[in-house]
Design goal:
- A hairpin with a 5-residue loop joins β1 and β2.
- A four-stranded mixed β-sheet has the order 1-2-3-4, sandwiched between helices.
- Helix content is about 40%, strand content about 30%.
- The longest helix is centred in the middle third of the chain and has 16 residues.
- It is α/β, with parallel strands linked by helices.
């Protein structure tokens, strides 16, 4: 999995993921989230899932952990643009709204 980091016009940090989010790649997400939070504590962290081609339950757990870490640091969190199997997995597990709604810090 690849992660590109962008700062949006409103100051939110956007992590754009590409590839598979699973047991083999969740550390990349954890590292990116940790670096983003500790590098300046943005007001909002957006994880863009448009480029994620596969996401298993480990990946969903990593997204939930990222949300918890962000919120614990006073950073709002939102996952955006889940598609295909990623979106369906989030819906079946029951976390789609939790991850995509955006949380106030």
């Amino acid at each position: 999995m690849k992660v590109a980091r962008h700062v949006d016009a409103d100051g939110a940090v956007r992590l754009v993921l590409a590839g598979e989010l699973d047991l083999a790649t969740v550390e990349t997400l954890y590292d990116s989230v940790t670096q983003t939070i500790t590098a300046g504590r943005p007001g909002r962290l957006v994880v863009d899932l448009a480029g994620v081609t596969f996401c298993d339950s480990t990946g969903i757990g990593a997204l939930l952990d990222a949300r918890t870490a962000a919120n614990s640091s006073g950073v709002a969190f939102q996952a955006t643009n889940p598609r295909g199997v990623t979106r369906r997995t989030m819906q079946v597990i029951g976390v789609f709204e939790v991850l995509t709604a955006g949380t106030a810090a």
